[in-house]
Amino acid sequence: CKLAIINGKIFSAFRSSLAKNTQNLDKVLQGLCVSGKLEDAIRLLYRTGFPVHPRTYSLMLQECIFWKNYGRGRRIHAHMIIVGYVPNEYLKIKLLILYAKSGCLETAQFLFNNLVEKDSFAWNAMIAGYVQKGLEEVGLETFYEMRQASLRPDQYTFASVFRACATLALLEPGRQAHGVMLKCQIGDNVVVNSALIDMYFKCSCICDGRLLFDKCLSRNTITWTTLISGYGKHGQVVEVLDSFHRMISESFRPNYVTFLAVLVACSHVGLIDEAYKYFQSMIRDYEMVPHAKHYAAMVDLLGRSGKLKEAYEFVLKSPYKEHSVIWGALLGACKIHGDLDLLKIASKKYFEFERVNTGKYVVLANAYASSGLWDDVEEVRASLRESGVTKEPGYSRIEVQKEVSFFFNGDKYHRQADEVYWVVNLKQNAETHGTLCCTMHILQVAGNSVPLMLRNFFRYWVCHILRT
């Protein structure tokens, strides 16, 4: 088959010969994919209008998945439908992976339900797809269904499961999955180890997270960054900086996320000089160009320290002064310190670039309300209504004895609302009178009870809530 190549585009010179010998077409399409000309391959596929060998379809779909060209993958699927080609089970799984990674979970679920045999690739694709889409509960349910189907999970399965448990802060399901992983004898894997360490840190099991890190046989930058970020989330700045320097001493190169975690940690305790040192080291020693979030972390640091003028000047000198995230950091700092003049400047610039963030509307309205500027509060609320964006109510989520409860602001519909508010009032009264509990006082109650730990400064109250 001869092909005419014009301006980098490939056209069939002898379409009829391809029709007579589809093997030639398969070879040409496979050659185009291997040489990185996927778009030309798809054009040629459509021009001929003939089905090709499953191996060719598979190679083309795999290229789409690898390069995240999901739109092109859907075009290949459309071609199958147009020419009446019925994909085999292997191609169905390829299509399932394509749709799951692209976020088209309804189509992926349809393909999954119609598989004759569901292997681990299919299950992993569905679990990962749901977790990436923010449907962690569904992803975990799919994992449980996989276990009931007697399929053996692999490292990809557990990476998604631990990520779901970390996002939802589900300690018990995470521990159970960890136990299953040990029984499955999953070898030392950097991705799985990082996800597991992250889960324990996000579930506030800092010691377990550190113990797992110390037991890792193979570490890389991601593993170290997970440890550093975990300490940072809990405000343990000494551990953050110690881990960072230890990471460098062991010849691991920090990445953008590593430096961001370090800068945020410095911001939480006001280490201005240290933060500037790390910020400059990022540029000078590692030849990295800081992103908008790195500049925002520096603005947040200066703002938290009350240096609003320096923070404003830093914003104006930064290459991201036309980016919402850096103005959002300044906006939050102005709200904390009550600088209304700079607050108005920051809010105006922020909403030029970001109109749909309801959280910043609330921050701005609360800042005006704190100063008694009720006309400005109403103006902010009117702007929020005009934008057509509705604020989703915030809530807290807790799991006790495998039962998940959600609590919304002012919520009195929970079946244990009276007991919950009793504990809240007890905590508020203790804080009002400056009471510090030096020992564990346990209220005797009848029946089954659930211990609820409430932090009062650096001490703990232990209360038992009667379960109905």
UniProtKB/TrEMBL annotation:
Q: Which InterPro entries match?
A: E_motif, PPR_At4g14850-like_plant, PPR_rpt, TPR-like_helical_dom_sf
Repeat (PPR) positions are 119-153, 220-254
Query: Domain of life of the organism in this record?
Result: Eukaryota
Q: Which GO terms describe its molecular function?
A: RNA binding
Among Gene3D superfamilies, the record links this protein to: Tetratricopeptide repeat domain (1.25.40.10)
| Pfam families found in the cross-reference section | E_motif, PPR, PPR_2
Looking up PROSITE patterns in the UniProt record yields: PPR
What are the recorded Gene Ontology BP terms?
A: RNA modification
Q: Return the protein name.
A: PPR containing plant-like protein
Species of provenance: Medicago truncatula (Barrel medic)
